[in-house]
Automatic annotation (TrEMBL):
Protein name, entry field: Cytochrome b
Name of the gene encoding the protein in the UniProt record: cytb
Residues annotated as signal peptide: none
Membrane topology, as annotated: Multi-pass membrane protein
InterPro entries given in the database record: Cyt_b/b6_C (IPR005798), Cyt_b/b6_N (IPR005797), Cytb/b6-like_sf (IPR027387), Di-haem_cyt_TM (IPR016174)
BP term (GO), one: mitochondrial electron transport, ubiquinol to cytochrome c
Gene Ontology, cellular component aspect: mitochondrial inner membrane
Domain Cytochrome b/b6 C-terminal region profile: 114-168
Organism: Meteterakis sp. NS-2016A
Subunit description: The main subunits of complex b-c1 are: cytochrome b, cytochrome c1 and the Rieske protein.
Location in or out of the cell: Mitochondrion inner membrane
UniProt keyword list: Electron transport, Heme, Iron, Membrane, Metal-binding, Mitochondrion, Mitochondrion inner membrane, Respiratory chain, Transmembrane, Transmembrane helix, Transport, Ubiquinone
Length: 168
């Protein structure tokens, strides 16, 4: 998608391009934090090695590593920080996707298969508004169900007491 945008010179649409680029960077950050979480939970040493890769950034690398660690060592606080980042970033990406689509709706696209006349742009018809409101209602109903009854859809075997003397 990114290289297609380069080919069709989509970078001329600065707002659309910058929001898309920010989505790409946030997706990479979410993947990085998820990758570090797994290794750092097994071994702080692995987390230190992976996050120390940020120190290769010229000028600010050391400060970025210290900010990521939260101190001069990697500890449980760092894992909590990565955990929070890993699960909040997708929401930020979702907001950016909406902004990206709104900007595309306003400016159009630079793709050659797109017709560049104003007559070909789709306006926000009441049908789309109604469809979006129905989707919003369904999602809110789903989230309300999940938040009020969190264990109703879970597996009962999750609540069996663990026996450390017996292997699974």
């Amino acid at each position: 998608h990114f290289f297609k945008g380069l080919f069709f010179q989509s970078y001329r649409l600065k707002g659309v391009w910058m929001v898309g680029l920010l989505m790409l960077i946030l997706a990479m950050l979410a993947a990085f934090t998820g990758y570090v979480l797994v290794w750092a939970q097994m071994s702080f040493w692995a987390g230190v090695v992976i996050t120390s890769l940020l120190s290769v950034i010229p000028v600010w690398g050391h400060q970025i590593v210290m900010w990521v660690w939260g101190a001069y060592i990697m500890a449980g606080t760092t894992l909590k920080f990565f955990f929070v980042l890993h699960f909040l970033i997708p929401w930020a990406i979702l907001i950016l996707v909406v902004g990206h689509l709104m900007l595309l709706h306003e400016t159009g696209s630079t793709s050659v298969i797109y017709c560049h006349g104003d007559t070909d742009k789709e306006f926000f018809a009441p049908y789309y508004w109604l469809k979006d409101m129905l989707n919003l209602f369904l999602w809110l109903t789903f989230f309300l169900f999940v938040f009020l009854y969190p264990f109703s859809l879970s597996d009962p075997e999750m609540f069996i007491e663990a026996n450390p003397m017996m292997s699974p």
